Structures are given as C-alpha cells and as structure tokens.
C-alpha cells in the first residue's frame, strides 16, 4: 500500500464511537459482506502489517575494526499468509562515542527463499552454512559457501535425521567450532520404525506392478503445542573436513537434546589441516555442551513421575520442564582416542562414532579436488557427563569470550513449584579448556549497559533509521502515541506488593477516553513497554489500552508470582478491576481523568481470555463488550485434552496441592474445583456482547472449551438468566493457540475493532446506549 493511501486512511479513520455500517450486500446478489463500514480501519491495519520486526541478530568483528551486524527481519505477507524473511548487514564503526545511540550503515535487504530454514555465518565471516528444506526422502539439504561460491552441498537422508529444528527453544541457529572445521545444529531424530510397503513392491523402478504405500505406524508422543507430529530434537555435526554428517552419541534416547554449544578449544593457536584454506579463529573441537529434556514429568509431580510410561506434556512457554546440562568430550584424530580416557572408554567411543557416521551425498564429490581431504575424524566420548546436577533446569549455555567461565539460565524455581514461569537465575561456572568445569556454580547478577542502535540507509539520507522507512500512516500513529505507567496497589489477597498498569493512549486526546483493558496470558509472563502492533493500532483508533501486570506476572518478585496459583479467578480479576479504577482516577494536570469508566471493554487471549470471561461474568455492569481469543473458559473440560494438564491443577489448587493431586485422570473433587475457578461458572450473569475467536488446531486450550462456553451463553435459561447478549464466533481452521498467521492476525484485530466500534461507545453522543440503540 502506498504511503499516500495509508495517510489518507489514517486521516479519515472514524472515531471509535461511530456506529458501524450494516452488512453490505454483495454486488452479485450473493452473501452480505461483514464486517462492513471498516474501509479506513482496514487500510490502517494493513499499513501496520507492513512494519518489520527483528527476529535474530549476529555480531562479529569486522576485518578493519568495528563490528559487522547481520540482522534477520520478518515482514508479514498478507496475500501469501506467510512471513517474508530477509537479512540486512550493518557496519558498526570502531570508536563509537560513549552515550546516546549508535548509528550503523545498512546495506540493501536480501530476501530469504521460503525453502531456506537457516543461514549461519562463521565467526570469521569467510564461510556460511545454509540449510534448505528437505523433501519426501531427505530431511534437509546443507550448503556450505566460501568466498563467492558454493563449495559443498549435502543431501541428508531421512534415515539420518528429519527436518531442522530452529524454534528458538530447543535450538537457535547453528554453532561453529572455533577453527571452523565443523558446525553443530539440531534436527528431528529419525523415526525408529516404519511399516512395510503394502500391496506391491517397495519400488517399481523399471518393472510394472501395483502401486504400494506405507502405513501410518505406531503413534509417538510429541511435545504438544507447536510441536504436533514432530520427532524429538537431536544434535548433529557437519564435519567440513570429511564432508559428512554425524549424529552426536552419548545420551539416552529417552531425552530430547538441543541447544548445542562448542566448548572453548584446549589450545587457542591450534589449527587443523582442514582450516589451512580458511581463516582460523582458534583450536580444534574439544567438546560440546548439550541441554537434554527428559521424556518424563519433573519429580515435583509425584503422581506423574511414578508412572511407568508417563505422558509427555507440552513444552512451549513451560519452563517447569526439567532441562539438564551435559558435557560430551570430543576431539579430532585418526586414532580416535579421547584425551585422558581409559582404553575401554576409547574403544566404546570409536564404536559409537563409527555407528553414528553417515556419509551424505555431496555434489562436490563429483567435482575435481585440488587435494585429498584430511583423514582425521571427529571422535566422541563414551558418554556425556551431567554438569550442575543440583539444577533441574539449565538452559542457554554460553561461554565468556576468554573461555574461562560458563554462563547459563536456570528455571529450577519453576520446576520445583510446578508453575510454568517463575523467577529465573543466572549461574556462572568456572571453566578450564583443559579440565572443563569443576562442578561448582554460583548465582550471579550481570549488569549490562545497553545503547540503542539505529540502522540507517546507505547514504544516510533516510533519517531515523529503519523507523524512517515505515508507512506514513504508521509513522503518524507512532508520533501520536504516548505511554503511561500507573502503579497499582492490590486490594485483596495476602500479597500486597504493587504492580504496574501499562497504558497506551493517544497524545491528542480531549477528555476521558474509551478504553480497552487487555490482560496478558500465561499467567506467569508480563507485558513490557514495547512494540505491540494491535495495541498501537487500537490507540490510533482513539482508545486507551490498559495492560495490567497483575500479581502472578513475572518481574515483580517470586512472592508476588507465587501468590496467584490457587487464587486464579479472584486475585487476578480484582487486580484488573483495580487497574481500571486507577486509570479512571489518574488525573492529568489535575483537570480530567484518562479513561471514561463507563466506556471500558475487555480483550484477552488464553489466560487473558480467562480473565475476560471472569470480568464479564463477575462484574457484568462494568464492561461494554468483550473479545475472547482462544480463552480458558472451563478448566474441568480443558484438563482432559490440553497438553498442559499440570497447569490446570497447579493454577486451580495452588502449587503444593496441585502438584500432589495432579494425575492422568482427575477425580470428581478435582473437576469440581476446576469448574468453580472457571468463567463458565458465571456464564449466566454475562450481559455484555461477546466475540470469540478460536484456532481449530489449538492443543493448549482446545477449541471445544470455547465452543462449550459459547453454547452455554447462547442456550441459557431465558427465564432464569434473561436473554443472552449478542455473540459472534470465528474459527480459524489452520491456526493453533497463538492465532498468529498473518491473515488470521489481520482478520481478528479488524473484527475486534469492528466489535468495539459497535458496542464500546455511546451512540450519537447519548450516554447509556450502545451502537444498536439498546440501553
């Protein structure tokens, strides 16, 4: 969309209190179009969809001093319902002045093809690994680029590994060895079995015969939401000296293994023959650190942990899953011996490495070679050794630049309490490249000085960095956006620690604003003063957006967080009400308040949808309307099908009682407690219009949960509870819990704006009426 069109759209966008147009009849006499009368809002939302976001950044030293920054950005492709991904490379000059922002010169973007799953540049900047999607017979295609040409391409068969894992949790990118002779990455482990080829030969080749097929085979549990149908992750090494891919041995198959990290080299100046033609950055491989997630519940859930074959629970945003840190020794040598290893262990290591070694077809095998490849092979230790055994959670290991310390993040508090989020800790381990860790660790705090980075266009004429390239309507909306943080004191419960109410609002306001309270999901997460396109969009339409970090949110101490489990539907609900009251009472220049208390609506997803249902049901006179996105509405129904049954117990009954009672099948008493804590218990009291949006493939809060709530609302006893309010339902057939596909995101927020426009403000300036004219 051109800037002129988006600017016009923003200038003509109606106030949020305007009545929406009725459904528009189709020109051909077909179905009416709905929502109608939203052309200006739709154009503005399309402009917001053009704004890119940074998904990854890699920093490396530049040859002439300073730094080179490679940034991967994503931009929504609405017609294609996908994310465009592209890289930009920025040069940060040496000797940047202290204080203020740092200006960087950016080259033109290079779009990544949809088949590109990973681009990893070596530390020296002279090599690049590109991982492409596989096909029916291959898990992935690995390309190694050096200088200005492709030097190797390997097709990895599915018998070695499946698709690349690069989800930001099990793995983030690939890691290069210090001498750049090997790269470690994470991919799905191969299937352990397959059915025979039925009703015909496996491959017809040149013969005639009936067509065969393979069956589905035995079901294998996965890690739930966002991991449906995926095999467990496992680490693999691409050995560039021998052009082969190795599965890393040493850990039980009853683990998912990821986040591989190379240990510092034992000799910083050592270099193998394999790197004679490349820029070496250090010694050869000396070992790997690996994070392993056991395929079993944590010991803090005694009933689940005692099962002979426990169910694998969901892992996305679930930091109460055990994650153990291991060290696997390795070296490169023709004899295959691991330093300081006994003969039996060395023999076992050699056998394991030989069994793991698979040569993938490589196009460079058929090209003339300037010289023979080195014969020395990577050799692994007989088994991996667990580090920090006292920590049930050890994630994101990273070494200090000098290689003398290992830093890691632990969520052991979440594992112990059973809550999906808790206060994390940063640990430091002393490390010797020759001896590894001595096993001791200490909790530490690191203070970092952050400086904003402005990425400017070549020539420096753009001004304002990447923000100067935004659509004009978005730029105007951001210039008119203001933030406010209001400190709120809780009114109920044992914990009285204050929390923050973050408010997005337009600068050019006159008088109290219509407001939307948007409680976050989780519940153990938090909203920050950051870039949230839907909130900026609603603010541009004239609403104040309230985001309370109610008790139970992260960032306010473990005591405040721990006060919510066992009190959901009570403490968090009253905190949301207190946040609204504080915004209504917040005065500006002692003349007028920020928010009109009579024009407040509520929008929330997941646990935020749970709070939306509770606010509408427990306090029906306070809110004009509600929008629920994949909401938790009946925990007693959710527990049977969700990938996080532990959440249902802990949040309903509290940490200690919930962990004790958590079982594969809930008891009648468990179900009664879960229902009592659910919005469904108050559905007959709801009077405000309700708009619900569901993802048909949601495994966290299955859509049947929301459908049951809507059926109860629409089909309630009219004599006992009165007529139901207006309702609307949209089900997105291909979406999961996040409802984050570009077209889904666009449609849901445009419909939310339409719903607010219809119900959230007085009609024709007459207080007490909604857009339909009803009192």
Automatic annotation (TrEMBL):
Q: By what name is this protein known?
A: acylaminoacyl-peptidase
Compartment(s) of residence: Cytoplasm
Broadest EC class?
hydrolase
- PANTHER family assigned to the protein according to its UniProt record, in alphabetical order: ACYLAMINO-ACID-RELEASING ENZYME, SERINE PEPTIDASE S9 FAMILY MEMBER
Residues covered by the Peptidase S9 prolyl oligopeptidase catalytic domain: 536-761
Mind telling me which InterPro entries this protein's record contains? AARE_N (IPR045550), AB_hydrolase_fold (IPR029058), Peptidase_S9_cat (IPR001375)
Sequence similarity: Belongs to the peptidase S9C family.
Q: Which reaction does it catalyse?
A: Cleavage of an N-acetyl or N-formyl amino acid from the N-terminus of a polypeptide
Higher taxonomy: Eukaryota, Viridiplantae, Chlorophyta, core chlorophytes, Chlorophyceae
How does this polypeptide assemble, per the annotation?
Homotetramer.
User: Pfam families from the xrefs?
Assistant: APEH_N (PF19283), Peptidase_S9 (PF00326)
* EC number(s) given by UniProt: 3.4.19.1
Q: Which GO terms describe its biological process?
A: proteolysis
Q: Where is this region: Disordered?
A: 1-35
Q: Where is the composition biased (Low complexity)?
A: 1-16, 24-35
């Amino acid at each position: 969309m051109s800037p002129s069109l988006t600017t016009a759209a923003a200038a003509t966008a109606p106030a949020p209190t305007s009545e929406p147009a009725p459904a528009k009849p189709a020109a051909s006499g077909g179905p009416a179009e709905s929502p109608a009368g939203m052309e200006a809002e739709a154009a503005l939302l399309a402009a917001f969809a053009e704004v890119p976001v940074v998904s990854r950044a890699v920093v490396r030293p530049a040859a002439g001093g300073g730094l080179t920054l490679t940034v991967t950005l994503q931009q929504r492709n609405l017609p294609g319902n996908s994310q465009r991904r592209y890289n930009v490379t920025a040069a940060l000059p040496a000797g940047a002045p202290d204080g203020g922002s740092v200006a960087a010169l950016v080259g033109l973007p290079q779009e990544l093809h949809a088949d590109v799953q990973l681009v990893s540049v070596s530390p020296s900047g002279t090599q690049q690994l590109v991982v492409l999607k596989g096909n029916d017979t291959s898990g992935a295609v690995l390309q190694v680029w050096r200088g200005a040409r492709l030097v190797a391409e390997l097709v990895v068969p599915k018998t070695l590994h499946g698709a690349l894992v690069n989800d930001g949790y099990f793995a983030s990118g690939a890691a290069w060895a210090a001498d750049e002779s090997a790269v470690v990455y994470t991919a799905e482990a191969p299937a352990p079995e397959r059915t025979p080829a039925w009703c015909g030969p496996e491959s017809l080749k040149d013969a005639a015969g009936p067509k065969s097929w393979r069956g589905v085979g035995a079901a294998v549990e996965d890690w739930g939401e966002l991991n449906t149908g995926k095999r467990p992750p496992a680490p693999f090494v691409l050995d560039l000296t021998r052009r082969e891919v190795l599965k890393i041995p040493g850990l039980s198959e009853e683990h998912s293994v990821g986040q591989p990290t190379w240990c510092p080299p034992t000799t910083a100046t050592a270099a193998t023959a394999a790197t004679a033609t490349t820029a070496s950055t250090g010694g050869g491989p000396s070992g790997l650190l690996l994070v392993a997630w056991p395929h079993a519940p944590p010991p803090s859930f005694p009933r689940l942990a005692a099962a002979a074959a426990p169910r694998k629970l969901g892992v996305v945003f679930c930091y109460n899953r055990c994650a153990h840190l291991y060290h696997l020794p390795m070296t490169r040598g023709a004899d295959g011996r691991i330093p300081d290893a006994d003969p039996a262990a060395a023999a076992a290591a050699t056998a394991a490495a030989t069994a793991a070694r698979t040569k993938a077809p490589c196009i460079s095998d058929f090209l003339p070679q300037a010289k023979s490849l080195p014969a020395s092979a990577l050799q692994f230790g007989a088994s991996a050794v667990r580090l920090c055994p006292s920590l049930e959670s050890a994630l994101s290991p990273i070494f200090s630049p000098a290689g003398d310390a290992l830093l890691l993040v632990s969520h052991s508090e979440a594992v112990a309490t059973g809550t999906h989020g808790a206060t994390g800790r940063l640990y430091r381990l002393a490390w010797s490249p020759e001896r590894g860790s001595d096993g001791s660790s200490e909790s530490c705090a690191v203070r970092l000085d952050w400086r904003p980075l402005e990425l400017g266009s070549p020539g420096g004429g753009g001004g304002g960095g990447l923000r100067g390239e935004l659509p004009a309507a978005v730029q105007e909306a951001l210039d008119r956006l203001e933030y406010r943080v209001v400190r709120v004191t809780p009114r109920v419960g044992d914990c009285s620690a204050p929390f923050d109410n973050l408010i997005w609002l337009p600068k050019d306001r006159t008088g109290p604003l219509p407001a939307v309270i948007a409680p976050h999901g989780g519940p153990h997460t938090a909203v920050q003063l950051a870039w949230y396109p839907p909130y900026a969009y609603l603010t541009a339409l004239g609403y104040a957006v309230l985001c309370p970090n109610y008790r139970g949110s992260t960032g306010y101490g473990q005591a405040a967080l721990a006060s919510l489990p066992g009190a959901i539907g009570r403490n968090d609900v009253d905190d949301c009400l207190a946040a609204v009251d504080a915004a209504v009472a917040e005065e500006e220049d002692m003349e007028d308040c920020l928010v009109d208390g009579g024009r407040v609506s509520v929008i929330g997803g997941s646990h935020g949808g749970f709070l939306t249902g509770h606010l509408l049901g427990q306090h029906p006179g306070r809110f004009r309307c509600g929008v629920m996105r994949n909401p938790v509405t009946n925990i007693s129904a959710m527990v049977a099908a969700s990938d996080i049954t532990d959440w249902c117990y802990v949040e309903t009954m509290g940490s200690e009682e919930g962990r004790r009672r958590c079982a594969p099948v809930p008891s009648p008493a468990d179900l009664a407690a879960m229902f009592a804590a659910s919005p469904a218990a108050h559905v007959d009291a709801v009077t405000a219009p309700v708009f619900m949006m569901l993802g048909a493939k949601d495994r966290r809060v299955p859509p049947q949960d929301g459908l049951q709530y809507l059926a109860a609302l629409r089909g309630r006893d009219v004599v006992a509870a009165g007529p139901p309010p207006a309702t609307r339902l949209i089900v997105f057939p291909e979406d999961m819990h996040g409802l984050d596909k570009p077209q889904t995101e666009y449609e849901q927020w445009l419909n939310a704006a339409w719903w607010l426009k219809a119900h959230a403000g007085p009609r024709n300036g007459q207080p007490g009426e909604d857009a339909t004219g009803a009192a």
